[in-house]
Amino acid sequence: MGFAEQFLIQQPSDTLYVLFVGNSYTYYWGLAQIIEGLSTSGDTFISTRTSTASGASLSDHWHGRYNLSTKEKIINGKWDVVVLQNQSRSSIDSLDQFMSYGLKFAELIKSVGATPLLFETWAREENPFMQDLITRAHDKLATEAMMKKVPIGSLWQKIRELRPAFDLFDPDGSHPNSTGTYFNACIFYSFLTGEQATYLQTRVYTVDHHGESIQLTIQDDQEATFLQSIIDTYLISSLASQ
């Protein structure tokens, strides 16, 4: 039984309340909002909120830099899950800080009765060999903090191995493009619910404060099917074996 099944058994309702803590890797193209939109047609609604700032590390979140109030949001919110996404190179350039603040946040999240999840980031487009270092650091933090890791970067690496020309990157070679964010949203949806990604909608909408529909993302059906098959093959199968 995977993480999602174990977690959802404990839920008194069919809604998960999830806070995403991170930076532009999280807020580019509205990751949290797309996850919520994907969940509207599933058995479990995922209500999402964010605490993000451009370039922010977990150290910045902890110390309230960039006008962040992440600790207060964790303490005062009624979260089921808090997702931690550190600055993209922190696991390589400042491993001690990466570990230290990851452990601090994991402890804080557990102290308020929520479940911490670690968002594994991806290698830059110009240097896919970074992924091994990134993955090892995230595995180390997940093990020491006794929290689960969402293997975003590892699944990006799988895409690059199977279809090197498939484009998940923004032109800057670091951030996700809209397809990359859609892929990340499908990964999180499957991880949090235990449901397969196959047949998730490729057009995701939300509603503004006037009640009017806003399109968050639209993806090519064939490309989306490929991405969903990667999730179902390499993520869902691993969750089922845990």
Architecture overview:
- It contains eleven helices and seven strands.
- The protein has a single domain, classed as SGNH hydrolase (Rossmann fold, 3-Layer(aba) Sandwich).
- The protein has a five-stranded parallel β-sheet, sandwiched between helices.
- With 242 residues, it is of the alpha/beta class.
- The protein is globular and about 40 Å long.
- The termini are close together.
- It has helices at residues 3-9, 24-27, 31-39, 58-63, 70-76, 90-93, 95-111, 130-145, 152-162, 178-193, 221-240, and strands at residues 15-22, 45-52, 81-84, 115-119, 148-150, 203-207, 213-218.
- α8 links the parallel β4 and β5.
List the helices and strands and how they pair.
Blueprint: H1 3-9, E1 15-22, H2 24-27, H3 31-39, E2 45-52, H4 58-63, H5 70-76, E3 81-84, H6 90-93, H7 95-111, E4 115-119, H8 130-145, E5 148-150, H9 152-162, H10 178-193, E6 203-207, E7 213-218, H11 221-240
Parallel strand pairs: 1-2, 1-3, 3-4, 4-5
Antiparallel strand pairs: 6-7
Helix pairs in contact: 1-10, 3-10, 7-8, 10-11
Brief synopsis:
By secondary structure, this protein is α/β, with parallel strands linked by helices. Helix content is 48%, strand content 16%. The strands form 2 sheets. Strands 2-1-3-4-5 form a 5-stranded parallel beta sheet, with helices on both faces. Strands 6-7 form a two-stranded antiparallel sheet.
